[in-house]
Amino acid sequence: MQGGMRRACGNADLFGRGFAVSPTLRALKLMSRSPGRREMVQRRRRRVALCVYLGVCPCPQVQCHVPPSTMDASVVYADLNLTKTREPKRASPLSLPPDTCRCPRWHRLALKLGCAGLILLVLSVIGLGVLVISLLQKTSVEKSSVDVQENNMTKTTDGPAILKCPKDWLPHRDKCIHFSQDTNIWMEGLVDCATDGATLLLIHDQEELRFIKDTVKGKGSSYWIGLNYTLTDKKWRWINGSTLRSDVLQIIGEATKDSCASLTEDTVVSEDCISDYKWICQKELKRV
């Protein structure tokens, strides 16, 4: 059978495309009828197709004569069969180099948790610093306010206390002034003022003198004040021991052994200390 196929190879119509080799077809049909030879037939057909594709006959002693008109169709058929028989190559997955370090999954999780903890730690330190600064500023502000309040209280206590004058006493500057309704000698007027915790009036300047004169104006009375004449040094002295200054007031009249000063709405006169006049008391305001 093989000898018959070689003799018929050059004239065989392999695929029914213009080759006139009917004995070969018959031989192939006979071979294909037996189940054991179907595989041999298929191999033979592939060899013949290779002959058509390469222009070389699988039969060593016989040349294949392929008509030119059918050459292109045979090549196309062979290409299609070869394409169908080829299995597509699947792209192999990218493989990492063998020395590449692959960290376990729990390592990556631990790294993420460590980074998150570090961020929280930094934020906590920043917040703590801001809190400490705000507390320090608040403490300094409170301390400053306390110091200001203490200074204000100190200034208030350092200044003269403003007390309400008793009934029938007139306030003036830092003292209360009282005009008596009774008359008596200069010494009795001094004693009466002392019983109220006061003294006879001491005039310090022209402004105070004007205030007293304006107050007694229209009353038509004379009032003892805390000024008398001392015979030893022949000077007018206030009861606190200070000497009368000429720029404060001028005394009218002759000064004698027992001379005391009385005040009217117009002048200050030297009078006998045993004369009966009203008197003026003053009470100094004291700090509390």
Structure explained in plain terms:
The protein is α+β, with helices and mostly antiparallel strands. The radius of gyration is 72 Å and the shape is rod-shaped. It has helices at 2-9, 22-33, 38-54, 71-85, 105-158, 186-195, 206-216, and strands spanning 170-172, 175-179, 199-200, 223-230, 235-238, 251-252, 259-263, 268-272, 278-284. Strands 1, 2, 3, 4, 5, 6, 7, 8 and 9 form a 9-stranded mixed beta sheet that branches. The chain is 44% helix and 14% strand. The termini are far apart. It contains 7 helices and 9 strands; from the N terminus they run H-H-H-H-H-E-E-H-E-H-E-E-E-E-E-E.
Key terms:
9-stranded mixed beta sheet, rod-shaped, alpha+beta, 288 residues
DSSP strand count? 9
Structural class: alpha+beta
What is the N-to-C order of secondary-structure elements (H for helix, E for strand)?
HHHHHEEHEHEEEEEE
Span between termini: 150 Å
Radius of gyration: 72 Å
- Which stretches are low in confidence, meaning pLDDT under 50 for 5 or more residues running? 1-21, 60-85
Helix fraction, binned, reads 40-55%
Largest β sheet strand count, sense and barrel closure: 9 strands, mixed
Work out the strand percent.
5-15%
Helix and strand arrangement:
Layout: H1 2-9, H2 22-33, H3 38-54, H4 71-85, H5 105-158, E1 170-172, E2 175-179, H6 186-195, E3 199-200, H7 206-216, E4 223-230, E5 235-238, E6 251-252, E7 259-263, E8 268-272, E9 278-284
